[in-house]
Amino acid sequence: MLTGVVVGLVVAVPAVAAEVRLTPGADLQLVLYVVLLAGLVLGGLVAGRGNPDAALTAGAFAGLLAFLLIQGAAVVIGQLNDRPFPPPLRIAYNTVMAGCAGIFGGFLASLRRRPPTDVGEPLD
Questions:
Q1: How far is C-alpha 77 from the chain's CA centre?
Q2: pTM of the model
Q3: Fewer beta carbons within 10 angstroms: which end of the chain, N or C?
Q4: Which among 109, 121, 89, 87 is positioned nearest to 1, based on CA atoms?
Q5: Cα torsion at 49, 52, 57, 60 (round to 10°)?
Q6: If we measure between CA atoms, which residue out of 50, 72, 73 comes closest to residue 61?
């Protein structure tokens, strides 16, 4: 699962770093938000492949953990640069979106074909 978190961070952190430099309301913010979510989906995919029996759960945790690390760092850096604290509703919404993105990545991991298992004697 930690590999999924690292993969999510590798994709998402550059998007967040670029977004911080933009002026509020810039059109590019939406594109960077999609890149952030794509990174969290990829992190959920990697985590789900690492734990195929609980792919959705692993994906959700990977997405959430990666987002919480990013959000925590963003809040700390923002406070050090005298930026206002983000609205709590925005943080809650983005946390839910991060969990959903991770679950979607775990779902994609669960679609991978698995070899059939021997379940016993065939039915007549």
A1: 21
A2: 0.84
A3: C
A4: 109
A5: 10
A6: 50
